[in-house]
């Protein structure tokens, strides 16, 4: 039996939902369906999740909310009407939104409950439409399904007891439609995963019911070897290992959430990325092992929005506990770091820029200065990271030289190189403004 997750672009309109129903119809193995909230129908369209967040923020500011609720209801109204569904669903969505706004909960809990309305409504709409189309289907709330999560609003983590509970759903005769993106704490509080988290729900359900395949339906035929916004018609990837995909999605392949691989990986459930608009295309398979290929690099991922804290102190290597004290300061300030390359007298800590707002920057620099007494400390913002990924990297000579030559041919300065800790990737830090030319040059060096 298969778990199929349909992303925001797959449920963005009535037309897309009809395609989804056909895909479910053509394969009776597709028993567990996970859906996102309606996403973008065209480039500059708005995602329902973003509209719900704006509504929540306006409510917090005590603004009138009608102008925020109206476009949300208009989107759902169009979908429900075009699919000829009962208007009762719309009433239900509207009442849910108002009930959340009136509830006496914390700001973050309220925002999470609002964000979940998108996925929850999609699941109700799709199950009603499947039933109308003659497929026995039922809406299944994540609480009833057993998706139990930690109490971290906007960043839930799955709790291990969820999987046994999900296993009990395994022998269903009906198609079960589960909203993605959220679960419930043991105290029954609704908490969402991080953005893009319906992929995580799909993987959790696949692991729980021990599916034979987790299909992730989106709007591209496959995972491409580079983000298609950088290069026209990039090469398609037919097979990736979990390790490769984890690195690539962490580093910017937004087609699949980087946290979504872990549950499927632990149960060795293959994942297939497929296109709702072209379901006959074979898609990209993510598996535990693949035949060694002649290509050592499978993908080049990149992301901007990083910054680095650079610290230099003569004889740092001899100062016992220097690194620990530095990380302790970051921990104390609630900051997680991404990478920490170091030398004899120097250390850099790479962070996501949104984790280091300007108001925190001053305090942290002062603490590092006072508590670690370095010779030099500086912060560099607007950095981008490029990750070259492939299981073949370890056994291929000359990859670093090929990559650095490609970056220098693009006339781009490398601010940082990180290789070694992960056997399947090599990372380069550059200025964000140089990202486009560096990625293009790397792509041509490795794939053309
Ligand atoms: N390497 C890549 N291969 C394919 N798609 C990619 C890649 N990197 C980024 N993307 C983007 O991911 C998008 C699909 O992910 P997403 O927008 O989350 O879809 P969904 O609406 O199905 O959740 C694609 O349209 C594409 O722009
Ligand atoms: N709707 C949520 C969760 C999600 O997974 O969406 P999508 O499938 O559109 O990436 C978000 O926008 O974050």
From TrEMBL:
Substrate binds at residues 49, 119. ATP binds at residues 5-8, 218-219, 224. GO terms for cellular component: cytosol. InterPro entries: AceGlu_kinase-like_sf, ACT-like_dom_sf, ACT_Aspartokinase, ACT_dom, AKIII_YclM_N, Asp/Glu/Uridylate_kinase, Asp_kin_monofn, Asp_kinase. Its EC number is 2.7.2.4. The keyword Disulfide bond does not apply. Pathway: Amino-acid biosynthesis; L-threonine biosynthesis; L-threonine from L-aspartate: step 1/5; Amino-acid biosynthesis; L-lysine biosynthesis via DAP pathway; (S)-tetrahydrodipicolinate from L-aspartate: step 1/4; Amino-acid biosynthesis; L-methionine biosynthesis via de novo pathway; L-homoserine from L-aspartate: step 1/3. One of its GO terms (molecular function) is aspartate kinase activity. Residues 388-448 form the ACT domain. Keywords: Amino-acid biosynthesis, ATP-binding, Diaminopimelate biosynthesis, Kinase, Lysine biosynthesis, Nucleotide-binding, Transferase. It catalyses: L-aspartate + ATP = 4-phospho-L-aspartate + ADP. GO terms for biological process: diaminopimelate biosynthetic process; homoserine biosynthetic process; lysine biosynthetic process via diaminopimelate; threonine biosynthetic process. It is an enzyme of class 2 (transferase). Catalyzes the phosphorylation of the beta-carboxyl group of aspartic acid with ATP to yield 4-phospho-L-aspartate, which is involved in the branched biosynthetic pathway leading to the biosynthesis of amino acids threonine, isoleucine and methionine. Belongs to the aspartokinase family. PANTHER family: ASPARTATE KINASE (PTHR21499), ASPARTOKINASE 3 (PTHR21499:SF67). This is Aspartokinase. It comes from Virgibacillus massiliensis.
